[in-house]
């Protein structure tokens, strides 16, 4: 019998608990969530082509920091970036967590298929 080799350990990557992030964002940083949702809902009110699938794609691109393909998604991405520049008082971690919480909300309220607006219809009454 050959001796067993010790198993290699994966490096430990510390990540915040998603529930703790959600709780922190919804209690301490509602203004950031409102800023993000304001951009998305206003685009939806102005342009019927904006749907949950586009919103999800824009949020994923913003989290990754990569400009998305497509005219409409690019415009929404640029508007989110402009809002990010206005909110220079907010750390990058807080902003990214806000994007993640809104993306999670999209997934909770919608299948995010083309044409779906369940999330946008849900959040629109809360956005002035």
Largest sheet: none
Number of helices: 6
Number of strands: 0
Into how many domains do the coordinates divide? Answer: 1
Quote the beta fraction: under 5%
**What fraction, in percent, of the residue positions are helical?**
55-70%
Could you give the order of the helices and strands?
HHHHHH
Broad shape: globular
Mean pLDDT: 92
Runs in which pLDDT lies below 50 for 5 or more consecutive residues are: none
Distance between the termini: 72 Å
The assigned structural class equals: mainly alpha
Output the radius of gyration.
18 Å
Q: What are the key terms here?
A:
128 residues; 6 helices; mainly alpha
Outline the fold blueprint.
Blueprint: H1 18-28, H2 30-46, H3 52-64, H4 71-86, H5 92-109, H6 118-123
In a nutshell, what does this entry contain?
With 128 residues, the chain is mostly helical.
Question: What does this molecule look like?
Answer:
- It is a single chain.
- The chain is an all-alpha fold and 128 residues long.
- It contains six helices and no strands.
- The longest helix is centred in the C-terminal third of the chain and has 18 residues, at 92-109.
- The mean pLDDT is 92.
């Amino acid at each position: 019998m050959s001796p067993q080799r010790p198993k290699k350990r994966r490096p430990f990557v510390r990540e915040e608990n998603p529930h703790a992030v959600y709780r922190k964002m919804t209690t301490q940083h509602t203004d950031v969530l409102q800023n993000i949702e304001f951009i998305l809902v206003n685009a939806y009110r102005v342009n019927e082509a904006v749907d949950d699938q586009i919103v999800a794609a824009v949020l994923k691109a913003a989290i990754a920091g990569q400009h998305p393909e497509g005219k409409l998604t690019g415009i929404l991405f640029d508007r989110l970036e402009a809002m990010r520049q206005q909110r220079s008082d907010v750390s990058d971690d807080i902003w990214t967590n806000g994007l993640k919480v809104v993306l999670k909300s999209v997934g909770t309220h919608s299948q995010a298929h083309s044409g779906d607006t369940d999330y946008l219809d849900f959040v629109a009454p809360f956005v002035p």
